[in-house]
Sequence to fold (333 residues):
Amino acid sequence: MNPRELVYRTLEFNKPQRVPRQLWLLPWAVNNYPQMLDKIKRDFPDDIIHAAGFLKTYPKCEGNAFEVGQYVDEWGCVFENRQSGIIGEVKTPLIREWSDRDKLRLPHEVLTVDAPAVNAFCAASDKFILSGCCPRPFERIQFLRGTENVMMDLALESPEFFELLNTLHEFFIKELLAWAQTDVDALTFMDDWGAQRSLLISPATWRKVFKPLYKEYIDIAHAHGKKAFMHSDGYIADIIEDLVELKLDAVNAQIFCMGVEDLGRRFRGKITFWGEIDRQNLLPNATVQEIEQAVRRVKDNLWADGGCIAQCEFGPGANPDNVYKTFEVWDML
Fold:
């Protein structure tokens, strides 16, 4: 069973021969543990990869997103970074006042997907391949407008906010449609919705404003024979039932801050949990025995002849031995 077949069987709860793997990396790990990283990648190669870098025209950016200093992304948002190896934060939003609305420039270059090149990449690999795009309407509007302003806009139901959100959504639909015409296996999108113990907004507001957007993204994927993968950090237990209803195939979430057992009782066999092993506490601080217990806990509670992907993030603070142990244990189960 090749990697692509493994992932499809996992998503369809159809008894894959083993749990598929994917390592997420931040440059911090590359800079600090290059030898251990090489060993992890050699011993536990990814079954899932991204089709990144296939555009006919590339958008203009300034600086390096993962180095100390300023980085200006393809939307013109300025990120301030104080630690090498991770991405920074937007401190001065582009559209602080609605009179700044004309500063918005949509990065149409990202719509110039080189479909023949993507298809050649897919044909040359037996991996399960994710799209090279990742729409993020909630996060993007925060980058553009500022988080405090966005929260006030939602509370006040500002018409300008909804006009801007719709502009972003229509653009993201075009981006997803461009990737849907290629041979990738899944379309990807994201938004970080959780704080440590709750959603950042009320579930009712999420369902009213954002759930319809994600429905369109998932429907586009399925209409074109693709799977739909979503990432969302934090406590998002209150909306997983909605994601199941929308027929999302896989969600990457911080399952340990929501309670692995509770997620298993509610959603086992209904959606694939695309990782993860706790990167807040376990990956930095656990013993290898505790890592083994954590992986077994995930498998015991969430696996149903599929439904789990062995994913974890090798980022700031992570003990490389714990990252290695995570994949070693998954391979044993």
